[in-house]
Amino acid sequence: MGKLTRAVALATVLAAGAFGVQAAFGANSNVSSTSFSLFPNASFVNCMRKNASTTPTATATVQRGAQNDTLTLKLAGFKPNLGFDLFTVQRSNQLASGTPNPNFTTFGMAWYQSDVETNSSGAATVTVKSILLDQIFGFDPDVSLAPTNTFHVGFWFDSVAEAQPCSPTTLAPTPFNGEHHAGPVAFITRPNSKTALGPLCTAPVKSGSTFTCKP
């Protein structure tokens, strides 16, 4: 094979590889919908499960819209009449593998999205309309906070008392409800193992060694 032929072949391989990465990491920002699971805070599962043989589950589907998006959250297998508070947040306290993030400090930027309450059967369905896929962000120039994305979805116990039986130590309240006196996180999404971004980003773009989201 001559030098020119080898060069053309190499260029073809590199181009194909670049296309594969682009396709794999969602250069298309027009994904019409996405579905994903939320995962429990393992320490508090027994304070949420309907009974000893039932595992509580939480799934979300987000449909892209022209002016805003629609997120539908569905809970099943929970205790009846249990209250939660739904947020989108900057960071998850879980790794992609499901283990606790040893470097976790805070959830970062957080947006209050909805209240959630299970019915008498231990199920719930909540719908939120907002800017969600690929573009959700907040900023605060008063404290020099640049635009910050909140690509993770989680919900917190509305009451510290509902989670306390699952903790051997006294729980401190968290700010994740309207009274800023919520319990711990109950369920939350995990980052993508390759991009480290939350599931509300459907169009990750690699920039150096990290990924950002194409708005």
Describe the protein's architecture and organization:
This protein is mainly β. It contains two helices and twelve strands, in the order αβββββββββαβββ. The protein has helices at residues 3-24, 160-163, and strands spanning 33-40, 57-63, 69-76, 83-89, 110-117, 124-130, 137-140, 145-149, 152-157, 185-188, 204-207, 210-213. Strands 5-4-9-10-1-2-3-6 form an eight-stranded antiparallel beta sheet. A two-stranded antiparallel ribbon has the order 7-8. It is globular, with a radius of gyration of 20 Å.
**Overall average pLDDT:** 89
Output the helix-strand order.
Answer: HEEEEEEEEEHEEE
Strand order of the largest sheet: 5-4-9-10-1-2-3-6
For the secondary structure, the number of strands is 12
Largest sheet, if any? 8 strands, antiparallel
Label the overall shape.
globular
Topology of this structure?
Elements: H1 3-24, E1 33-40, E2 57-63, E3 69-76, E4 83-89, E5 110-117, E6 124-130, E7 137-140, E8 145-149, E9 152-157, H2 160-163, E10 185-188, E11 204-207, E12 210-213
Antiparallel strand pairs: 1-2, 1-10, 2-3, 3-6, 4-5, 4-9, 7-8, 9-10, 11-12
